[in-house]
Amino acid sequence: MNKILKTVILLIFTHGAFAQKLAEPTVSLPTFKKDTVSITAFGAISGGRHLNTESINQAIDQTHKKGGGVVLIPAGVWLSGPITLKSNINLHLAANALLQFTKDFSQYSLVQTSWEGIPQMRNQSPIWALNQQNIAITGKGVIDGNGDAWRMVKKAKMTETQWKKLISSGGVLNEKGDIWYPSQSSLKGASYKDPGLVEKGKNAQFYEEIKDYLRPNMILLEKCERILLEGVTFQNSAAWNIHPLMSADLTIRNINVRNPWYSQNGDGLDIESCKNVLVEQSTFDVGDDAICIKSGRNEAGRERGMPTENLWVRNCTVYHAHGGFVVGSEMSGGAKNLYVDNCTFIGTDIGLRFKTTRGRGGVVENVYINNIFMKDIPGEAILFDMYYEAKDPIVLSGEHREPPKVEFLPVTEATPQFKDFYINNVVCDGAAKALFIRGLPEMHIKNIQLTRLDMVAKEGIDIQEASNISLRDVKLQVEDASKQIAYILNSNDIKLHQLEVKNANIFHLQGERTSTVDVQGLTGAQSVIKADFGANKNVININ
């Protein structure tokens, strides 16, 4: 009988902001026969030099044909090419088992799959399952994707010693000499826009010529049901580390996900168009977003029309990553009913990161976040941004960025939406900015309620093109000399209640569409109102 995780909790947010019952997703766990077979029974040889692809796949296939069970990878170093998971198989890694995937790219076939939310040709994932049920990867071992053999590397992300060592290993540099590629084929792929995109005019020869550029996600579980990932360390992926796609009933617990912090597209966990998901008690230290919610990109994602929904993340820790808990930017199918509780972000570029851009479409709504603890955040503690530009969240050394062009465009199906977010009890000891909200002139970010925030940051609150934003019971220590408590641009119905401020006193209003800013219970600062670029001081009420 499947074990059903079904719990109802009550989160009560203070000061009457809201009291909302949050139903945990019902997630069905897989079950397996106890029959266990070792890959050594099929001729697998440890040591890291013998290619065990055939042995491991035979073990999986034969066990699957007998009704399933446990395929054991014992202690040792096991080299392999791509592995195909099948229904009713628990791939179990014993303690001290290292499953390492080969850097011989010829072992990986080019296949049509999905990359960043659209149909693309990519190299086959090291571990892959399609239309399977009742599958698991468990144990105490390590799975290593040998991603260093695949990834390009930006010079700005390495020390001088690391860069010199990398160049001496081989590979080629781009014209500027600031990006290393493992091969000429990889460099050639970088010269095209969306080179893997499946479209007319591209034949098999085209993809073969840029094969090295088409890096695989390490774990791809597509259209599968009842999945368990438990106990294992997943590391060093060529692109994303773990990618459940259009799957249901997914449980992830007690895993470690690792990638070098310089790893390009080195995401930890990308959950795309999935439903009924539980992620708990896991640790992430990666090169891109850590726990990321997606649902397809642009027209392809909207046509798929599969939101990620009914998802729970709890008791997780994130170290280095571009974002701790992230939605977007490929969220064109939407996302809803997302619950995040008791998570810690340490040294993460951005803590809570919600990103999209024009062209995506999709609605992200009903997001409930509680008990988030952060320290040493180089960027924003909490960020909502509808001008995502596919760049690192922290500006690299020597990099110059122009601000996005602001214009009022018609609302279409390609206009994204963020609304109905409820965030409670966030503590952040050190960030570049406490809160950043930036919507579009034609589509404001709407109905964001934040309660019980305790923030130490260089800059305070930045709200642009937003409506019905409520902050209640906030402690804010600002370290920047600008002394701005809040900057508000072309936004309306902004509530700042029970606000305790240190080292800041300015409310800066801009834009003729800014209206109805209500500040109550301000302590620790004598307020100064600054209004320009069409804003009127009379729209703010301070009591």
From TrEMBL:
Gene Ontology terms, MF aspect? polygalacturonase activity
Signal peptide residues are: 1-19
One GO BP on record is: carbohydrate metabolic process
**InterPro entries documented for this protein:** GH28_Enzymes, Glyco_hydro_28, PbH1, Pectin_lyas_fold, Pectin_lyase_fold/virulence
Q: List the SMART domains hit by this protein, alphabetically.
A: PbH1
**Superkingdom, according to UniProt?**
Bacteria
- The reply to whether Hydrolase figures as a keyword in the UniProt entry is yes
| Keywords on record | Glycosidase, Hydrolase, Signal
Q: What is stated as this protein's family in its record?
A: Belongs to the glycosyl hydrolase 28 family.
Q: What is this protein called?
A: Glycoside hydrolase family 28
